[in-house]
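Structure representation.

___
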Amino acid sequence: MIIREKITDFLSCAFLSSKVRKLVTGLVQAIVKCNPDETIKYLLPKTYDSIEKIMNTSESNVLLTDHKGDIELNWYLILFSELVRARGDTLLIYKQMIMSIFHQYISIINKNAYEAIANAANHLLKSLSHIYPIDYRLTLENIDESFNNFLPIRAWGQHVDFDKLQVQYHIPNIDEIDFACQFVETFIYSELTLLNEKSLKISNDERLRSVTIIYYISMGCLNMIPRIDSQTVQDLVSSVVSYDSKYPIYHNKPKFRENLRMRLVIDIGKLLDVLVENHSDDVKSIKTALKIYSLSSIYYGISKNNIYKLSTDVQSNKKLFKNKLSDKRQNPRFLSIKRIVLQLKKFETDNSRTLTEIDKQIVLKLSDLSINRYSEIRQKAQFKLFAILNHYHFSFQIIVDRFVELLNKPDETDHDQIKSCLYILLGNNLVFLPTKYSWTMMEKLWPSIALMNYAKKPSTQKLINDIHK
């Protein structure tokens, strides 16, 4: 009791140093995961009161529109974003308090503040709607007993039989799903309407704030939203049998007014067209909009990059717990649970792999933006294009003709387009088009590459040489 009070009093203070903030937010994450009920009970009301106090002691309009922001307010919003990582059923009790904070500060213009609010939205939706383990303890023993009966230090490093893990999961109930749906429909549609109606009238900062909020809300909720009903692309020449596994995750189906993925494809697609044509200087907003646009096609709760990080973490921990004398590995309970989580997340990413007409539309738009005259825009578009090409087997076939046409007319084509085309052919560590398994594609692409023996600029010639290698 005394230790808990000291920690909560410590966390209730305002931490102005960025280095101290990182340390403290790590501590908050740990205690929220360990004991969410008690942590939220003592910290969330205090944080709410501190935020309200700041709002009441200053003019709200000035606070929301001040680009410099308030350092103390920023800290409490960061703390709030960490607290809503707690289990969804724990947060339901404080629904009114949580919604009140979002209603007041969702439109704040200071970058640090709205990023904290955006992160809070992402954490809240994941807490409410995701399936995840809720108990990572090293042992199932009652650690609250007297030390005479059980000494917790004796459980450190001990392995647990896989059949006796007794993993407990957070599975969203109907109230949590309803809360998540209400939250999404309350905040994401207002931002989409703002961008649809005033995208050319608002400032770059306001536009960036809006697309950032949409991006983080999408990251938190798209795992609840099914694929867009669309016809499968029929003209792809494949060498393997295509599949499209659709396994329902929720017993309680989320109640959205429409398929939000389709809404994002339409609205964000229009926004990209408007920004590229009229506000190509607003690179940050365009890059964030590109993230949202690609999410609609391939994101179902976790990205492949996050899977890789989780897998790396598990593998590094497995090496630490290997008994080198007997060449055996006995995993502690928390590590075995992490391995289960990794498999669940891999299942989520592999849930849908058949290319549809809507996915084709997204690929074609990204390929057009990948040869844009502005380097930062085309680099981000290429990165997202590679992610989608890697996700959908044989999807590269729908863009080959466009690039072959560019390569065959180098004298009549903009140099930046040719260079961008070569960068796409060169790909990254996951995608390299010239060696994809399609004789039809190779027949079109290889002669065009082979005939490009001459380039006006050394950088272009270097790209051609790299592709030949």
Remarks:
- The chain has a mean pLDDT of 82.
- The first strand starts at residue 132 and ends at 133.
